[in-house]
C-alpha cells in the first residue's frame, strides 16, 4: 500500500467518485465529482475504472507528501500544481518519490482538478459510494463526509503502470465560449415568451453564490406564469427558477425534491463544463433535444475506449 500525508487542505478538497444511485427515495442525494469528465480522464490515465475514487481539488490549497514511491494522475483545471518546485500541468500521470511534495496553489484555468491513484484511493463505501457529502455525513476517508484534513493519510493499493499523457484532442478547452446545452422539459411552457427568449439569447453571469448544491446565474428576470407547484423529484442539472427570476442549476449535492418551476436540465457534458467555471464567468444557454444530447453523450464516452 502507498500513502500520501495531507500536509495542508481546505474544506473544498474532497474524496469523490461517480456518486450514489438508487437512494434518492430515502432522501439521500447523489454526490460525486462535479466534473465527471476530468475525473474519468484522470482514472483513464492509470487504467482505472472511470468512476474509481479520486480527490476533487477546488481552487487549490492542497499539499500532499509522498510516504514512498507513488504513481498518480492529474486531470481537469490548472490549479498551479507543483512537484516540489517543478510545475506540473494537468492531463498526465506522474511519479512522486518518497518525501516529495505535491501542492496546488491557485487557479489559472478552470476551478477543479482531479487527482487519481492506481485502483482508486482507499475509503469505506457508504450506500455504495465513497462520495463525500458533508450535509448528509456520508462518504470521505472516514465515512462521515468530511473534507480532507491536515494530518490524515490518503492511501491506495493498486499497481502502477506506464506514464501516459492526454493528447491535445483529449484535453478540454476551459476557455471555450461554447454554450451550456439544456434539455427542455418540466415547466418550460409556463414561462412567458419574453422569458424564454431571454433565457436562450442573453448572457448569464455565474454568481459567487455557487457550491456543490447549486450554481446561481445572474441575468434577466425570468417570469413563471403557471399555477403553484407541488414539490417533485429533481434530476442532476435541473434549472430551477425561484421567485426572484434568477435561475439556479442544481448540482450533485442538491436536495432530492423541490417546488420551483424548471426550464429543463443541463446535459452531462455541459454540467462538466459548468463545474470548471469560476464566479464571474459569462455563460450562455442553448436548447437541445434529448435525442441529440444522448447521441453526443454516447459519442463522447466512446473516446474512453
Descriptors:
alpha+beta; 6-stranded antiparallel β-sheet; Cyclophilin; 4 helices; 8-stranded mixed β-sheet; 305 residues
Tell me the β content.
25-35%
Q: Mind describing the biggest β-sheet?
A: 8 strands, mixed
| Tertiary shape | globular
Please state how the strands of the largest beta sheet are arranged side by side. 20-13-14-17-16-19-12-21
Instruction: Give the radius of gyration.
Output: 20 Å
Question: How would you state the average pLDDT, rounded?
Answer: 95
Compressed to H and E, one letter per element, the order equals EEHEEEEEEEEEEHEEEEEEEHEEH
**Number of self-contained structural domains:** 2
Query: What structural class do helix, strand and pairing data support?
Result: alpha+beta
Poorly predicted residue ranges? none
Number of strands: 21
Distance between the termini: 28 Å
Number of helices: 4
Amino acid at each position: 500500500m502507498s500513502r500520501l500525508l495531507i500536509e495542508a487542505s481546505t474544506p473544498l478538497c474532497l474524496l469523490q467518485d461517480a456518486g450514489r444511485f438508487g437512494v434518492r427515495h430515502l432522501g439521500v442525494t447523489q454526490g460525486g465529482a462535479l466534473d465527471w469528465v476530468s475525473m474519468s480522464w484522470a482514472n483513464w490515465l492509470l487504467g482505472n475504472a472511470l468512476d474509481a475514487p479520486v480527490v476533487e481539488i477546488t481552487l487549490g490549497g492542497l499539499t500532499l507528501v509522498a510516504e514512498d514511491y507513488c504513481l498518480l494522475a492529474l486531470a481537469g483545471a490548472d490549479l498551479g500544481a507543483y512537484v516540489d518546485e517543478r510545475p506540473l500541468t494537468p492531463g498526465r500521470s506522474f511519479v512522486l518519490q518518497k518525501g516529495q511534495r505535491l501542492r496546488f496553489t491557485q487557479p489559472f484555468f478552470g476551478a477543479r482538478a482531479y487527482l487519481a491513484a492506481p485502483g482508486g484511493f482507499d475509503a469505506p463505501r457508504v450506500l455504495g459510494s465513497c462520495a463525500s457529502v458533508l450535509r448528509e455525513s456520508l462518504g470521505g476517508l472516514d465515512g462521515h463526509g468530511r473534507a480532507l484534513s491536515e494530518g490524515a493519510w490518503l492511501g491506495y493499493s493498486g499497481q502502477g503502470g506506464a506514464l501516459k499523457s492526454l493528447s491535445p484532442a483529449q484535453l478540454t478547452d476551459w476557455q471555450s465560449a461554447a454554450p451550456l446545452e439544456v434539455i427542455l422539459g418540466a415547466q418550460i411552457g409556463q414561462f412567458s415568451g419574453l422569458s424564454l427568449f431571454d433565457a436562450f439569447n442573453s448572457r448569464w453571469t455565474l454568481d459567487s453564490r455557487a457550491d456543490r448544491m447549486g450554481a446561481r446565474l445572474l441575468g434577466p428576470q425570468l417570469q413563471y406564469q403557471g399555477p403553484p407547484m407541488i414539490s417533485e423529484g429533481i434530476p442532476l442539472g435541473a434549472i430551477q427558477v425561484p421567485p426572484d427570476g434568477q435561475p439556479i442549476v442544481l448540482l450533485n449535492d442538491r436536495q432530492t425534491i423541490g417546488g420551483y418551476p424548471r426550464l429543463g436540465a443541463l446535459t452531462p457534458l455541459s454540467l462538466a463544463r459548468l463545474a470548471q467555471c469560476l464566479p464571474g464567468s459569462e455563460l450562455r444557454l442553448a436548447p437541445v433535444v434529448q435525442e441529440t444530447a444522448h447521441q453526443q453523450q454516447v459519442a463522447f464516452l466512446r473516446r474512453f475506449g
